[in-house]
Amino acid sequence: MTTRPIKPHAAYRQIQPVRHEPLEVHNLLWNRAPATPPVRSSYVAPDANQYHILFTGLVLGIFSIAASIFPVCGLPMALAGLVLSLLGRRIGAFQKLASWSLLLAIIGCTLSLLNIGVMLGIYVLTYL
């Protein structure tokens, strides 16, 4: 009587490693462009208009502090400087300058509003 070799069950078969072809060969075989990651750069060179907008916001912020004595001209200057400095915060190259511009505009706006409050308080106490 001869014995036959026992075949192992399918679940116990030794798994052969799958050979994958390199991605370049695969792309050439299927007529695809080579897979290269997109080049993303966070730095975009600002143009002159963006610099002028931000610098105008900085100058308005500085002048709004001095003009906060007169709330009629100090508050609009501060608000304009605030808007321009917020627009300048989108420019990646000038983040520090935009932060200073925003800070000066907020200080000018606060001083102008404080001056308006004091003037209204004096007016109310004097005439009412």
From TrEMBL:
Keywords carried by this UniProt record: Membrane, Transmembrane, Transmembrane helix
Q: Where are the transmembrane segments?
A: 58-88, 100-125
Give the species this sequence originates from: Thermosporothrix hazakensis
On whether Transmembrane is a keyword of this UniProt record, the answer is yes
Q: Which domain of life is it from?
A: Bacteria
Name of the protein this chain belongs to: DUF4190 domain-containing protein
